[in-house]
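help with this.
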Amino acid sequence: MSLHAKLIITAVSLANGLFVLEMLRKRRLTESYSLLWFLVIAAILCATWMERFLLSVTKFFGAVVPVSALTLLSLVFVLIMLIFFSMKISRLEWRIKELAQQVALRDAGEPAGDDR
């Protein structure tokens, strides 16, 4: 991989790190998710700058160039995150449904005209 490509990947990764830090500071992202993203950024930087590791990964996947291996790893990560967040959303949907049913049952048991 060329030095130019490495520098671009590093710059984008560091910009993402700053973005995650800002989201954490504004409390739009929890600490656990921030830690996950920082680990991903660190893995990307290590894979970018460790030639031997990147060549091993490229050979393992049968890719022609290291950038293809990084792209494949990125795609796999995105797919895993999509599944993870789909599971989270499903769990939240079930919880909201349960809470809505509990509120409906509670409201059904109160006398009519009792507006609080």
In short: The mean pLDDT is 89. Residues 44 and 74 are 9 Å apart (CA to CA). The helical segments are 3-25, 31-49, 51-61, 66-109.
